[in-house]
Design a protein that fits this description.
two-stranded antiparallel ribbon, flat, about 35% helix, single chain, alpha+beta, about 10% strand
Length: about 80
Amino acid sequence: EPFGSVRYGNGNRDKDGFEGAVRKNVIATYLHGPLLPKNPDVCDDILIRALKKKFGEDTVLEPLPDETEKHANELMVKKYAAV
């Protein structure tokens, strides 16, 4: 299944609207730049998948403050949304 949808650009195939792929616990993408530091939700998803695999489905990831990361994400969205 696709990793995400493309708002700007071409995606996997010319203008198909999707980027990357997810299969089981693998995420494949051709994104440029620092994906994880600027996308705390992706980080949390990867971490919770790993923790659940190691410690069981009842594992809970306690939220941490993501203000800096969310701000960086907002700046990138504004920068590329204007293109």
